[in-house]
Amino acid sequence: MTQSSPNPTTLLRQCLKLAQEVSTHPQANEEFSQLREGIAATNPQAAELMDILWQEVIAARRSAEFWHEMSNVEKDLSNRMMENMAQLRQNYLRLMQEM
Q: Is it the case that residue 1 has pLDDT exceeding 60?
């Protein structure tokens, strides 16, 4: 039996799925390169367009990951500030009771 090459649409979906996580970007890029080579053989202009779109996908995912991390840092900072405020309030109430 001969093994047929996967459908380009299926390959692109696999690449996009891998691109969802920054940690799998190297594998996603490798699979995308293989997909691109197959398309470039028949349609060089389509391959160029795919390159542009792929770079945008990767940049968008990295940006989303960055802002997600920033959001987590901001959340942690907010939580610590609230804890500090509660502690200060308790300290103030204790000080007032001692007077």
A: no
